[in-house]
Amino acid sequence: MKAQKSRRSSEERSIKDWERIFSDLYSEADSKRTPEQMWIAVMAHSSSIGESIRMFAFERLMKSAAHTFCWLCSFVNRCKTLQDNDVFSIKESLCGIVSLKYPGECGHCGSAPCTCDPEKIDQREDKSAAYKALLDSRNLILESFENYSIANSTKMFDKIYGGRIHIQTLESIGFHFLEEIGEAAFSIRKLGQLRTIADTRTGIDLAFLKRLSTVEGIVQNYAEHRKKPEDMNWASIEPDMLRARLVDAKMGLVIEIADSFSWFCAILNKLDKISRKISEHPRTRDILKPLEQVLTDEYFDAKGNARCPACKNNPCICSFFNLNTSN
Q1: Where are the domains of the chain?
Q2: How many other C-beta atoms are found inside a 10 Å radius of the C-beta of residue 196?
Q3: Cα–Cα distance between 104 and 188 in angstroms, integer?
Q4: Alpha-carbon distance 23 to 252, whole Å?
Q5: pLDDT tens digits along 90-111
């Protein structure tokens, strides 16, 4: 496969560009992994972000952020390549997923900047946003949002939540980020429990699963099939109950990926503010490089060719012995 050239200039890559770069590097290896295995990798590198925040190890933090972003994009790439009968199939880009909950505004109050009352939000048993209304907002901005770069995304979230991020510590922001990563894992676990749901005995057919492979389809079916928590019967194998469980898990995954990315950008925005405050330090530019630069340093060689940072090849040829999807 032809190596992709680095653009070491002021021109930024879109997040979709990074998804393509990571697909070229890792799609062959990732094809042998389950989504659950891939999210474990997201969690592992995310935990390194948390540890780096605790230790004030900013250089390590940025490298961990680069690898976290790589695995997050690779997870989305894996979901895009799955067959329609797989419960994890989502034919959307990362920006396409994020844009439902955050179509340029807060997914709860619909404002930018956010005007939510955090205490009241936390007290809600059901924090579900008005997804149909958000879908309408998403459709208005999706075309431009799909071309967002990392910088575009951080600017958008700074516009929505910059005031709140300003008064929070880096540790608090990191804690929220890890919380969202864990909540995404919970949705992934619920989907994994329904992996073989497509069967004539369950009444769940391929057509229904296919409708859940896009953000729009998930929103529409969530509105139709969702049940209140008190009405859920986890022991039931009735088709309507299984559909309710499936749309709940699928919507949960979309929302938690969006929330994870939101807090990931919050970390980057907080680091940017810290960087400005310590700009007189002679090593600041090395300690707190922009994520775009760290990604380029990690995933491109000196000649501008994309390659795996471990084995130095494109595609990656690292040796793994635990890629059997039956594990």
Answers
A1: 15-109+132-299
A2: 10
A3: 26
A4: 25
A5: 999 999 999 999 999 999 999 9
Q: How far is CA 174 from CA 37, 168, 171, 266, 284, in A?
A: 23, 10, 5, 9, 21
Residue 238, token pair as written in the block? 């009735």
Distance (Å, whole) CA 58 – CA 75: 25
**What string of H, E and C letters represents the secondary structure of 74-132?**
HHHHHHHHCCCCCCCCCCCCHHHHHHHHCCCCCCCCCCCCCCCCHHHHHHCCCCCCCHH
Which among 185, 202, 250, 195 has a CA at the least distance from the CA of 224? 250
Contact 35, 78 (CB under 8 A): yes
Per DSSP, the residues of 219-286 read HHHHHHH---GGG--TT---HHHHHHHHHHHHHHHHHHHHHHHHHHHHHHHHHHHHHHHTTTSTTHHH
Quote the pLDDT of residue 203: 87
Q: Apex CA 325: angle with CA 97 and CA 254, to 5°?
A: 15
Q: Specify the pTM.
A: 0.89
- The CA distance from 70 to 310, in Å, is 13
CA distances from 22 to 26, 32, 71 (A): 6, 15, 9
Cα dihedral 79/85/86/89 (nearest 10): 20
CB 246 within 8 A of CB 141: no
Question: Residue 305 pairs with which residues in a beta bridge?
Answer: 5
Q: C-alpha angle with apex 147: 106 to 153, nearest 5 degrees?
A: 40
Question: Who contacts 245 (Cβ-Cβ below 8 Å, separation ≥6)?
Answer: 190, 194, 232, 234
Q: Could you report the per-residue pLDDT of 288-318, keeping only the tens digit for each?
A: 788 999 999 999 999 999 999 999 999 999 9
CA–CA gap between residue 178 and residue 165 (Å, rounded): 16
Instruction: In whole angstroms, give the CA distance from residue 35 to residue 164.
Output: 33
DSSP 2: P
What the block records as the tokens of 191 is 């989907």
The Cβ-side half-sphere exposure at 284, using a 13 Å CA radius, reads: 12
